[in-house]
Amino acid sequence: MSILVTGASGFIGSRLALEHKNVVVSASRNVQANSDFFIEDINRHTDWQTPLSGIKSVIHLAGTAHNSSDCHRKLLECDYEGTLKLMRDCGKYGVGRFVYISTVNVYNNFYSRHPFGVKTQLSPTTVKAEFCVSIENNLKEISNELGIELVIVRSPLVYGPNAPGNFRLLTKLVKKAPLLPFALVKNRRDFISVQNLVDLLIVCASHKNAAGHVFLASDNETVSTREFIDAVAYGQGKKVLQVPIPIGFMRFFGRLAGKTRMLDQLLDDLEVDSSNISEILNWTPPYTMKEAMAMLRTEVKYK
């Protein structure tokens, strides 16, 4: 089976292309990346005929970066219009399955005290998550129209060597700070390692039972922020002392510093129900969180 992976120079895509190079054909907008195809721009005008030649499934990872300037325009042109154009070209050139990577941020976790599941009502609270909901809905319509199998994977924060965004900031914090204020934090959050996500995506691209389903990815290890930070420290070979700072105190000073959203991500719950993955795909994460975190200090850089 040949699988086209877009965004192959990114954090997840580069690992996917490297670990499964026997079945993966890679496409990237990074001219310096060692990809099979260079795609200058992903938008409603992109011609996917050559990259899609002989492809059975597509894993679509390309998208707008978290810190991108002019974010709304890029979300519209690349994430929304570009994704829908790619799926229509899949129908045009005989690709049978499309795997779309979405986010658990399509749910509103502010008032939630229960795990999110595939039947939980969507209520996005960020612009990017709103676009993801719109993309999911339109992909379902195209799937029905063109007869292409669609698989949607909603992912929480993905961690691992060279991870961008909040995890990179967290690893730097753990390296530099001997004391951290999360001893009293007993929230419940789900994460997934890049190793486990890559394994799941390959299964979603190839398993006969995956078609038509939405999956919420996770390590199947719900942990608190305190436990997650301890795991990061273990992975880096560091020791961090967690001190008991009242949560209300942290939220107050977080608001004063303009870091409310960051504090919410550290202190609130975000738990997902991934049970349908094992039921439908007979898949369980191949790595525990401890095993995956240990790779933070043992793996060479992919980029």
Rg calculated over all Cα atoms: 19 Å
Topology pattern, helix = H, strand = E: EHEEEHEHEEHEEHEHEHHHH
Helix and strand content put the structural class at: alpha/beta
User: What ranges have pLDDT less than 50 throughout 5 or more consecutive residues?
Assistant: none
Mean pLDDT: 92
- The CATH homology group name of one domain: NAD(P)-binding Rossmann-like Domain
- State the shape: globular
Strand arrangement in the largest pleated sheet: 3-2-1-4-5-6-10
The CATH top-level class label of one domain: Alpha Beta
At CATH level 2, the architecture of one domain is 3-Layer(aba) Sandwich
In DSSP terms, counting alpha (H) and pi (I) runs of 4 or more, how many helices? 10
Approximately how much helix is present in the residues? 40-55%
Strand content is 5-15%
Summarize this entry quickly.
The protein has 303 residues and is of the alpha/beta class. The chain has a domain at 3-159 and 191-221 and 270-286: Rossmann fold (3-Layer(aba) Sandwich), CATH 3.40.50. Helices cover 41% and strands 13% of the residues.
Task: Describe the structure using short key phrases.
globular, two-stranded parallel sheet, 7-stranded parallel sheet, alpha/beta, 13% strand, Lipid_A_modif_metabolic_enz, Epimerase_deHydtase, 10 helices, 303 residues, Rossmann fold
Word description of this protein:
The structure is a single chain. This protein is of the alpha/beta class and 303 residues long. The protein has a domain at 3-159 and 191-221 and 270-286: Rossmann fold (3-Layer(aba) Sandwich), CATH 3.40.50.720. The chain has helices spanning 11-19, 71-92, 127-146, 165-176, 194-206, 225-236, 247-256, 260-267, 275-281, 289-298, and strands at residues 3-6, 24-28, 37-38, 57-60, 97-103, 149-155, 158-159, 179-180, 192-193, 214-216, 241-242. The strands form three sheets. Strands 3-2-1-4-5-6-10 form a seven-stranded parallel beta sheet, with helices on both faces. The longest helix has 22 residues, at 71-92. It is globular, with a radius of gyration of 19 Å.
